[in-house]
């Protein structure tokens, strides 16, 4: 995408940080923002490899004035070049890509929560950080599929602990 237009001088990748966070709260994105503000650092464009991973919701709309202030163009594979926020179609595309990124996160969250709920219901798993008080555990002899579990992955079920003393 950048062939014939320049060269890559640095790479910034936020691994393990949610794209829902603002750029200033993602370590690598914050470093990129600091580099943009540094007059000693000379670059004139940011090449985004995957817009879904870079912008969430309306982040691009909020960031566009900053890019313009520092004279940094944003290049996207979806456009095959630089985004021009003054062109209505480009700004609309960036808003749409932000909405799609947000939708992907919401769908993933729903899938994970549904899977966790099913595990709790069907496998008797407790999904919290610590076992609730008043419960013990016992190891099942067979898994729900009827197979014997390996020693390292024996499944457990929480059972109420009988009360000690009268009430």
What are the key terms here?
elongated, alpha+beta, two-stranded antiparallel ribbon, 11% strand, 167 residues, 3-stranded mixed β-sheet
Describe the protein's architecture and organization.
This protein is α+β, with helices and mostly antiparallel strands and 167 residues long. The protein has helices at residues 27-37, 51-54, 59-69, 88-123, and strands spanning 45-47, 73-76, 81-82, 135-139, 156-160. The strands form 2 sheets. It has a 3-stranded mixed β-sheet with strand order 1-2-3, with no helix packed on it. The protein has a two-stranded antiparallel ribbon with strand order 4-5. β2 (73-76) and β3 form a beta hairpin. The chain starts with 26 loop residues before the first helix and ends in a 7-residue tail after the last strand. The model has no long low-confidence stretch (mean pLDDT 75).
Total helix count?
4
Shape: elongated
H and E order? HEHHEEHEE
- End-to-end Cα distance, whole Å, is 74 Å
Total strand segments: 5
Summarize the main sheet. 3 strands, mixed
Identify low-pLDDT runs: none
> Mean pLDDT, as a whole number?
75
Strand content: 5-15%
Rg, Å, rounded: 25 Å
Structural class: alpha+beta
Helicity level, as a percent range?
Answer: 25-40%
Strand order of the largest sheet: 1-2-3
